[in-house]
Amino acid sequence: MATHEKFKGYFGTYTKEDSEGIYSFTLDPVNGKILDVEPAAALENPTYLTISDDNRFLYAVAKEGGTGGVAGFRILDSGKLSFINSELAQGASPCHVSVNEENNLLLSANYHKGSADSYLLNPETGNIESVLSSAVHDGSGPDERQEKAHTHYAGFTPDGNHSAVIDLGIDQLITYTLDNGQLIEKSVLHIAPGSGPRHLVFHPNNTIAYLMTEFSSEVLVLKYNSQEGSFEQLQAISTLPADFTDNNQGSAIHISSDGKYVYAANRGHDSIAIFKVDPESFQLDFVELTSTEGNWPRDFVLDPSEKFLIAANQNSSNVALYSRDTDTGRLTLLQSDVKVPDPVCVKFLNY
Predict the structure, then answer these.
(1) Are 86 and 61 in contact, with CB atoms under 8 Å apart?
(2) Which candidate, 83, 143, 188, 217, has a CA 20 to 30 Å from the CA of 290?
(3) Which DSSP string do the residues of 229-248 spell out, in sequence order?
């Protein structure tokens, strides 16, 4: 990867206020600056994005009037997005989308419907062909926001054979076998009641995963059995200082590609917690907390070189850029005044 290369990325947003939809941006790694934030596609509430491995297509959560679903775009050389098509249904839109390596299957998680859905994609055109399967969850939890199922994440396991689906409302991580896109329940991990599990990342060794909880503000270290599609909890570690008692909601979680550091965001404390991964047990040791220089960090991302990190503060409509020490995992602020209206998700093209 050339050091002079500039990296292209996209912000997903809420369009309740000034936002027009999806925004593109450029990261200049030589000068350590975010540049050229501009509209890339008009879309209502594209709150989560995913990009195909070959960088040809971008898929987004989509809303249109009283319907919700997913929309597909072709990524142009200019960085603009060309609309392909959408697949919408009555009711609320999803909150999370992911695409497999073959770009023939898309998964979405619908918070309001408590469901996970699979879609057939045309890998050549990027067209969203049809809904293949829907798994609807049932139940509740002890927290007042757990009055029913609230599916928050639907991703692919590293082996590609399963979907890991997280439901915040019922405190469960449910593994589904993917049989020609059909979601068939395989295994369930019951997480501490009231913890509100939200998002998941896998370690590069493909046998360890790290799960972020929203209500208890913890990272759970999990062992993954690919044969059984099952998870086992090994550790729970807080993302907050011991003396912090105000409202906080955990949000995004990411891991460096060398598997040495895990990062988790706090909304309320408005910070990113940095953890070092033990090379033998893969459990976590706390390093430090870094302010996101804004209000309500909904998402963040490591750049393709992993020498930078971008945090998106939803309620203050600003984005912060940090340099990242790849040896210590620590972050140093470079920019905090980059304006993006109501940013909710940030993704880079694959390099």
Answers:
(1) no
(2) 143
(3) TEEEEEEEEESS-TT--S--
* Beta strand ranges found along 29-171 (DSSP E): 33-42, 49-51, 57-64, 67-75, 81-90, 96-99, 105-110, 115-121, 128-136, 151-156, 162-167
DSSP letter at 228 equals T
Is residue 182 within 8 A of residue 189, CB to CB? The reply is no
Query: Which has the closest alpha carbon to 208: 262, 163, 168, 147?
Result: 262
In sign, the C-alpha dihedral spanning 292, 112, 225, 304 is negative
- Over residues 105-127, the mean pLDDT reads 98
Calpha distance 323→24 (Å, rounded): 20
**CB 248, CB 265: distance < 8 Å:** no
Query: Do 12 and 48 form a contact (C-beta atoms < 8 A)?
Result: yes
Looking up tokens 């953890």, which residue turns up?
275
Query: Residues with Cβ < 8 Å from 166, sequence gap 6 or more?
Result: 109, 151, 152, 153, 154, 172, 173, 174, 197, 198, 199, 200, 211
pLDDT value at residue 57: 98
Tokens of 230: 């099952």
**3-state secondary structure string across 138-187:** CCCCCCCCCCCCCEEEEEECCCCCEEEEEECCCCEEEEEEEECCEEEEEE
Measured CA distances, 33 to 150, 250, 301 (Å)? 37, 27, 15
* Per-residue pLDDT at 4: 64
Q: Would you give the distance in Å from CA 245 to the centre of its chain?
A: 26
111/48 Cα distance (integer angstroms) = 12
